[in-house]
Amino acid sequence: MRRSDRLFDAMQILRDGNLHRAKDIAQKLDVSLRTVYRDMDTLMASGVPIEGTRGVGYKISPAVTLPPLTLTPSELEALNLGIAIVAEAADPDLKAAAETLAEKVDAMLPERGIADSDLWKFASYPFADAARGFSHMATLRTAIKARQKLRITYHSKGDRITTRKIRPLHLEYWGRIWSLTAWCETRDAFRVFRVDLIQSADALPELFVDEPGKRLDDYTT
Fold this sequence. Notes:
By secondary structure, this protein is of the alpha+beta class. The protein has helices at residues 3-14, 22-29, 33-45, 73-87, 92-108, 137-146, 216-220; strands spanning 50-53, 57-60, 148-156, 160-173, 178-184, 189-194, 198-207. Helices cover 36% and strands 24% of the residues. It has a 5-stranded antiparallel beta sheet with strand order 6-5-4-3-7, covered by helices on one side. Strands 1-2 form a two-stranded antiparallel sheet. A hairpin with a 4-residue loop joins strand 5 (178-184) and strand 6. Helix 2 crosses helix 3. The longest helix has 17 residues, at 92-108. The chain is globular and about 45 Å long. The chain starts with a helix and ends with a helix.
């Protein structure tokens, strides 16, 4: 399994907001306890709002405060989204400015959520290509609001490119990476897709309605 896939799977385990022991995470991911500790440190340093310590457990923290400003999750998403987009610019001055701004923002985040700013750089971040999926955000958001089915091509585990017909239900933000929760009609099951691994997203001339077992509430409860 690619490291980025494993880190994403670890975030999915923590998404329920409950405290998870490192031992249990290791069993679910089929990795060593040491690997879990290292992955949690990496995710924290990358800006994912995880709190916890070795020997106690880990969970997603509900809020992030930047003194003297208190940002809503949407505002922090917008800030990080803008930074990541500018970091992909060809202009070296803009790219350098985005990197230093990211370091300043990370330095102001609560200590439990990050490590030293030098531990996080765009080039070494495990989801360094996250900005690649931003071009699909408008299509995904519109389809969720309109309850419109999509056909996506997706870079799946094992370096496979698959085509899926989905019902997009919810976009979620995980510290500079976005995920899309959907009902996958191709697999007849819920799936969570990393937006940065979506190669294409096309709206289909089909709408969907709530059906028991296929709603977002059915996935989250």
